[in-house]
Amino acid sequence: MNLPDLLITPAHALVAAAPASPGMGMQLLFPIALIAIMYFLMIRPQMKRQKEHRAMLEKLAKGDEVITGGGIAGTVSEIGDSFVTVQIADNVQVRVQKGAISNVLPKGTLKSA
């Protein structure tokens, strides 16, 4: 024995059994479950809203009462491929992009306002 071993006793660690690690399938299950939850809570509802908005814009017709994204309310007087002319008062017309139309109002809503 050498001198350091006499002064300091060596520590002998017990070798513990390695904990059982989960299988590869279990490790992949958590990220897949997270992606599925994100799809059903965030992505799918957004896609549904976009589809409804697109359908609303396709049904848009002359004489419809609409509200734009900026809050301007008026009646559709002309429809183009990508622009819509909205009459907001007598002899006052505004040209907006189709995508800026946020809502189609029931007929007669603007007259009662």
TrEMBL record:
<protein>
    <recommendedName>
        <fullName>Sec translocon accessory complex subunit YajC</fullName>
    </recommendedName>
</protein>
<keyword id="KW-0472">Membrane</keyword>
<keyword id="KW-0813">Transport</keyword>
<comment type="similarity">
    <text>Belongs to the YajC family.</text>
</comment>
<keyword id="KW-0812">Transmembrane</keyword>
<keyword id="KW-0811">Translocation</keyword>
<keyword id="KW-1133">Transmembrane helix</keyword>
<feature type="transmembrane region" description="Helical">
    <location>
        <begin position="24"/>
        <end position="43"/>
    </location>
</feature>
<dbReference type="InterPro" id="IPR003849">
    <property type="entry name" value="Preprotein_translocase_YajC"/>
</dbReference>
<keyword id="KW-1003">Cell membrane</keyword>
<keyword id="KW-0653">Protein transport</keyword>
<dbReference type="Pfam" id="PF02699">
    <property type="entry name" value="YajC"/>
</dbReference>
